[in-house]
Amino acid sequence: MLRAQVNGVDFLGADELYAQLAFGVLAIAARASDGRTIHITVVSKLVPETVQVGPGSPNSAITAHGPSFWRSNVAGGSGTVTIKNISFFGADGTFTFTGVAVPNTEATGTRTVKGRFNVEYGLSDDQYNRMRR
Hints:
The protein is mainly beta. It has one helix and twelve strands. It has one domain. The chain has one helix at 125-132, and strands spanning 2-6, 9-12, 16-22, 25-31, 36-43, 49-52, 60-65, 68-71, 78-86, 90-101, 110-120, 122-123. The relative contact order is 0.22.
């Protein structure tokens, strides 16, 4: 489950939801029925934590609609992702970010996004093999 508001408009990521934890990177992507998407990528220590997704960060949050994209980890962007619980099977937490229009897309201005997630994911082959040892 991923629920959010993008500039105050409800976003329910129930149509498509993808979550994966591989090589210490938590990746979440959701698509709403109207085509809007939210992508969150966090380098995780596999512990509850709050990470920055602002300029220069290896972590990022993106919202998109059609050919328009807004990113958090570029100049003018900001935000955090708070991981409340994380394991090899899933994660839950909250996020808030301001995304800046990505050049060479149809995006203009900024988008403010606030939401929460509670996702289950499949194990990568590497993780599965490490757990079996």
